[in-house]
């Protein structure tokens, strides 16, 4: 079974799964008496998707299934600093141009 469904116009729609569902699916697949193929079939998802979730969970731990647009504290801090850096550069460039303008006016 694929991870897609169709709407009334026949458009393919991607199903979304919650963080809890993904975590429970990975936990289920890792049980000795279950396995990835059986867990995926029971849950109605592809085995490759389940393995992808398991790999992500193994590498990123609790940060594995944050969702779209959800940032860690560190990522939010970096984004804020990059934004501040961009603004400061723009202000510096404006001041440079103003200085050049006034130096030309004095001559």
Structure report:
With 107 residues, this protein is mostly helical. It folds into 2 domains: 15-70, Arc Repressor Mutant, subunit A (Orthogonal Bundle); 80-107. 63% of the residues lie in helices and 6% in strands. The chain has a two-stranded antiparallel sheet. Helix 1 (19-29) runs antiparallel to helix 2 and helix 2 crosses helix 3. The longest helix has 34 residues, at 73-106. The protein is elongated and about 85 Å long. The termini are far apart.
Quick summary:
This protein is mainly alpha-helical.
Q: What is the terminal-to-terminal distance?
A: 77 Å
| Level-2 CATH architecture of the largest domain | Orthogonal Bundle
Order of helices and strands: EEHHHH
What fraction strand? 5-15%
Low-confidence stretches: none
Would you tell me which CATH topology of the largest domain applies? Arc Repressor Mutant, subunit A
Adjacency order of strands in the biggest sheet? 1-2
Tell me the domain tally.
Answer: 2
Number of strands: 2
What is Rg? 25 Å
Write the layout of secondary structure elements.
Layout: E1 4-6, E2 12-14, H1 19-29, H2 36-43, H3 47-60, H4 73-106
Key descriptive features of the protein:
107 residues, mainly alpha, Arc Repressor Mutant, subunit A, 2 domains, two-stranded antiparallel sheet, 4 helices, 2 strands, elongated
């Amino acid at each position: 079974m694929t991870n897609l469904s169709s709407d009334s116009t026949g458009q393919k729609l991607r199903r979304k799964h919650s963080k809890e569902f993904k975590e429970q699916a990975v936990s289920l697949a890792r049980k000795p008496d279950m396995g990835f193929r059986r867990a995926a079939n029971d849950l109605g998802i592809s085995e490759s998707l389940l393995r992808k979730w398991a790999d992500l969970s193994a590498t990123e731990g609790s940060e594995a299934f944050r969702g779209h647009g959800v940032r860690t504290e560190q990522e939010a801090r970096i984004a804020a600093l990059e934004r501040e850096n961009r603004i400061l550069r723009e202000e510096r460039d404006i001041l440079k141009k103003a200085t050049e303008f006034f130096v030309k006016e004095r001559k």
